[in-house]
Design brief:
By secondary structure, this protein is mainly alpha-helical. The chain is built from twelve helices and three strands. This is Transcription initiation factor IIB.
Length: 285
Amino acid sequence: MVTDGSTGEMFCNTCGFVATERVEEEGPEWRSFSKEEGENRTRTGTPTSLAMHDMGLATIIGQADKDASGKPLTSSMKSTIERLRTWDSRSQVHEPVDRNFRQAFSELDRLKDKLALSDAVIEKTAYIYRKALDKGLVRGRSIPGLVAAALYAACRNTETPRTLTDVANGINIKRKDVARCYRLLLRELDLKMPVVDPIKGVARIASIADLSEKTKRKALEFLKEASRIEVSAGKDPMGLAAAALYLACVMLGENKTQKDIAQAAGVTEVTIRNRYKGLKEALKL
């Protein structure tokens, strides 16, 4: 059977019998002007996203200086189209809200790469930030501060192990300012945050401190037991995860100091010592 791409017919190559008159087009829904575009198998454009200032729904005047039939434009028409292009791009960020979103989401895009975050976290951040802007919380406050606060709230909500300090360092703002904006978001948007699970932070600390898989698994056992007998309530999750890892290192004889683990977890050695004592007593080790 032979398929004719232009007429959409499928027919026998020996007798010419037409089996199908209509074949579904599987290529892109536009004409290609370059080899790359011709090879591109995607049927549509980029998906819509809350993390774009126009949600990915805006249209632009293309860069190809050709008319509908593919003929090149005249020089006078070229300059007219160029002017139209300029005004089209300017008019898209004409509103202050659009300018705000553009600045906020470019900041968010930078943070995504810096903190290695998933698309789900970024979408959640954009959703929280849009709600904050609708409520008028951005006026009089720094845009990066509110973006960082929204990002931390999204990390908490999706149980992604990123601390307030990580986010503050990533966006280069004082931790105190991000915390203030975060409290404001919680209060004004009535957000309900799940309690951070210390187990989520174990893999990250173990990776940074270069601990063995055996130690990591032992620490997870300790934390699960601590959670069962309810000694983990009200404790800093990163501190508790670091203490469980240090306890596992001591039990299995892995040579790591409190300082190494404290630096990996972003907590102080005193915290690790206190949590270590508490865990040891609670688990009767």
